[in-house]
User: Which sequence fits this backbone?
């Protein structure tokens, strides 16, 4: 199995876990995970300014750092601030779901030379089946 296939399977697991946690932990709010899917792509607005600004904005939103931090807040506030716990928890699930789906389909973090050049390789027309090494 190729490394690319392994990475995509790993992201499928993230997607499944995000949905399962949302359904089990927040049964009244699970639909937010799907309904808010495109909200995170508003980070692409930076591309209006430049490829570099777009990459910075996109990458700042498409990292597991923020949903992970929100999950920690959700867990730590569960006993004494249930509303905070619910909102941060469902947002963490939705955010992780979005990133997982993006990565599962090969949309990686953007490199500053253009939208189609990601850490997982080129995307779009003319993209190869295997990722290219990112420029550092």
Assistant:
């Amino acid at each position: 199995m190729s490394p690319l296939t392994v990475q995509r399977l790993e992201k499928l697991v993230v997607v499944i876990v995000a949905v399962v946690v949302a359904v089990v932990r927040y049964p009244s709010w699970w639909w937010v995970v799907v309904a808010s899917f495109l909200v995170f792509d508003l980070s692409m607005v930076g591309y209006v300014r430049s490829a570099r600004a777009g990459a910075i904005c996109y990458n700042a939103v498409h990292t597991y750092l923020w949903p992970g931090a929100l999950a920690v807040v959700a867990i730590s506030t569960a006993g004494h601030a249930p509303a905070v716990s619910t909102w941060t928890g469902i947002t963490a699930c939705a955010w992780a779901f979005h990133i997982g789906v993006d990565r599962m389909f090969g949309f990686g973090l953007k490199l500053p030379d253009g939208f189609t050049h990601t850490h997982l390789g080129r995307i779009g027309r003319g993209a190869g089946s295997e990722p290219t090494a990112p420029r550092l």
Summary: The chain is about 55% helix and 5% strand.
